[in-house]
Design a protein that fits this description.
Helix content is 44%, strand content 20%. It is α+β, with helices and mostly antiparallel strands and 345 residues long.
């Protein structure tokens, strides 16, 4: 069977995004040899990384790796489109950030080339994959093979998000205390609150005898740096599933200090339960609801009945019912109560 068929079969077999990514990587490696990889899921609205599946030579250099990646504009996942894999070696470096990223890959890891592809559809960016290679560069034939995986993998990653909303929420076990990491400008962790380790282990499973890796925190903080540098304008925010049915939001912001320049100030990253309006917005995006369908669902979430929704949105009650039927079809639920439970958590 051709590579695209094997990938499509794997995508149909797995709902769990980690198992899916590992299965696809196992299929890609013989056809497109690589020495390391980074496969990041992203918040579909902000395109900020939130859930990594990675194998890189050194975790000690991870803060610098994430920071420099976000500050480079060459083949950035937010600029990739058209379903075509691209190679770093075939693109000129046009700025200081690009040159710093290339030099770091070469000097720190001995990487000669990086093949990149982004998984994007009409509802947003679901993730990106980078294959790193030492020695020689990726050929156009190899990049074409990687491009063949785009469509089935994008659809599968999208389905995984839908399945996460459908999962029954786990029992609430969090203390409710603030969860905050304080990062230096180079993204090294300075301090953190007591609840951070438990959250990080839930976000990225880690052996009990190892410190959890704050990858999701690095990503939102690096996005803040990218915004400040003018590389990208998406907000430094990502929403990610902490556990089935439990969605959290990570945000990054600079601390203010009158005696320190802004670029030298520390960065605070917070991890908090996703606010109802943010969760509802993501639910609408993930399920492909139209703007008007989203308006109807927001009104229902605020407790409105059909007549009130019609009045607020200047629609007939029949039109509201038509929109609701379409929402049911797209989300796979058959009652308002089930719909609101799934959207609101």
């Amino acid at each position: 069977m051709a590579l695209v068929g094997l990938v499509a079969t794997a995508c149909d077999q797995y709902v769990d995004d980690r198992a899916l990514r590992q299965a696809v990587l196992d299929l890609l490696r013989p056809a497109i040899p690589f020495d390391a990889h980074v496969w990041m899921l992203t918040d579909p609205a902000t395109a900020v990384g939130c859930s990594p599946h990675a194998q890189i030579p050194s975790l000690d250099a991870l803060p610098s790796t994430v920071r420099l990646k976000y500050l480079s504009s060459t083949n950035r996942w937010t600029s990739l489109s058209g379903g075509i894999a691209v190679s770093l070696a075939s693109e000129p470096g046009v700025g200081a950030g690009d040159q710093a990223w290339r030099a770091f890959l070469r000097q720190e890891y001995g990487v000669a080339d990086v093949a990149s592809i982004a998984f994007i559809d009409e509802q947003g960016c679901w993730g990106f994959l980078e294959l790193w290679r030492r020695g020689d560069v990726f050929s156009r034939t190899e990049l074409d093979r990687l491009s063949q995986a785009l469509e089935p993998v994008t659809a599968a990653l999208h389905r995984a998000q839908i399945a996460a909303f459908a999962a029954a929420p786990a029992e609430q076990t969090d203390s409710g205390d603030p969860v905050v990491l304080l990062l230096a400008p180079d993204l090294e962790v300075r301090q953190q609150t007591p609840g951070v380790d438990a959250c990080l282990r839930a976000l990225l499973p880690t052996e009990d005898d190892r410190r959890p890796v704050p990858s999701a925190a690095y990503n939102v903080a690096a996005q803040l740096l990218a915004v400040e540098a003018g590389v990208d304008d998406h907000p430094p925010l990502s929403r990610v599933w902490l556990r089935p049915g439990r969605l959290v939001t990570l945000r990054a912001a600079r601390l203010e200090h009158s005696a320190v320049a802004r670029e030298e100030s520390d960065i605070a990253v917070t991890i908090e339960r996703c606010a109802p309006d943010e969760r509802l917005a993501l639910f609408c995006r993930v399920h492909g609801l139209s703007a008007r369908e989203s308006d109807v669902l927001r009104c229902l979430a605020e407790g409105d009945d059909t007549r009130t929704v019609a009045g607020r949105l200047f629609l007939s009650e029949y039109t509201v019912q038509d929109h609701l039927k379409s929402i049911f079809d797209k989300t796979g639920v058959r009652s308002r109560r089930a719909l609101l439970a799934r959207a609101g958590g």
